[in-house]
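Question: I have long wanted to understand how a fold can be written as tokens. Here is the record:
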Amino acid sequence: MVVLPKSKIQSEQVSGKERWFGYLIGPCGTLLLNAVLGVYLNVYYTDVLKLTGVWGGAFLMFFPIVSKVIDAITNVLMGQIIERTRTKEGKARPWLLLSAILVPVTGILLFLVPQASETVQVIWILLSYNLYYSIATTIYNMSHGLMVPLSTRNTKDRGLLSVFNNVASVMISGIVVALLFPMLVMPRLGVSPKAWLLCMGILSVLAFPLIMLEYFYTRERVTEEIGNTEKVRPVKEQLNVILHEKYWILIALYFLISTLGASFKNSALVYYCNYVLGSYNDGITQTLISVIGGIPMGIGIFAVWPLAKKFGKRNVTLAGFVLYAIGGIVCFLFPRNMVLMLVGQFIKNMGGLPGSYIFAALFADILDHIEWKCGFRCDGLAASVNSVITTIAVGIANSVLNMSMSVAGYKAPEFIEATGETIGYVQNAATQNVFIFFFVGIEIITAVLLIVILKFLDVEKHVEKEQEEIKARHAEAAGQSNQLKGEA
């Protein structure tokens, strides 16, 4: 039997060290790598490796979808592996240890593409992409994603952990990916394969110590409360439960639609800033769009949770998406006007605050509601199916964007080896319209759909009462178990 390192968190209540190290600093390594890859990996494929025209544009269209189908399968498998994991350190946390090794190694492999034939490069990309996304990050994301629901049943503590967890994400995407990367890093990377490998290699290696920090400063109190003797229900039984639970169906639709909108926006961000609003790698356009528009995310650290406690997590999130849609309309009407784009981005991000900071706590409420209703937890399966949905959404977004670029006639930049310069071409009107629609148009539609979904997502009304009943059940079961042991 493998003996796992013990958590440094021994307190029964969520502690300050747990919030800061386990939920804020610890996740930053993988979040940073994933955030950079989410925005720039497709740019690496289209601009550095120049794969837009491979198989007449079909490769970059079908490759993301095929890979995400594989990723979806591994998500389901990983969810069931977590459900069947029984250790003193929990059922999800132990897998953070394995991901601490796999994430850095596979992250480097993404950019070690050999300077060989087109066929060799295609095979390498297929293998490295799936090693990273279908295995390494699946293991990390599934275990990391269950930390808030399994950390505690205290709704206040959950909310704070959700805020800290998402502050890390916002901090990484808002400061590093939005500010430092486009202004300081991208102009120096250009389309040089060696420069990309060095930069992404450093980011990959950084993930290891931070994932380890997350492991040591988290604790699964809910798993400990239930105990390691809980019977693992068959997948069919678990699936039947979640597919007949309206709140889970609503949250799954929420994940699908919000991820689609965000994936289209993130995939198109660099292209939009380079070819519509600014000039190629000018070092300022993307920074302004991301940072000025993202200022509300910093303010939200202090404002969102007090509002959610007063008005409810669902209500505040719903109101936020109304504002999000208004900001999106401003951006869509004036896609080439820097001032109005910044105003629209500011309004959008004000509206996106609740969804960014507190929605993980609402998902945790739904998992508790399922346990209250059916008598057992479906954490692994519910999280894996949600992850499958969001995974497929990312693949669809990348696929549709790449195919649209190919059809519209996207022209990749050229690297002049003699001077070390990268020249970006002016794109035709059709290509520019693709970037406009994907960056600012689609999220207006998704915001409206999310408003409708949230109208029916009122799970938090009875969650505290349900949690008390769950605790009473476990206490009664533990008492009966101790009585039987005494009689034996």
In short: The beta strands are 414-416, 421-423. The mean pLDDT is 86. The longest strand covers residues 414-416.
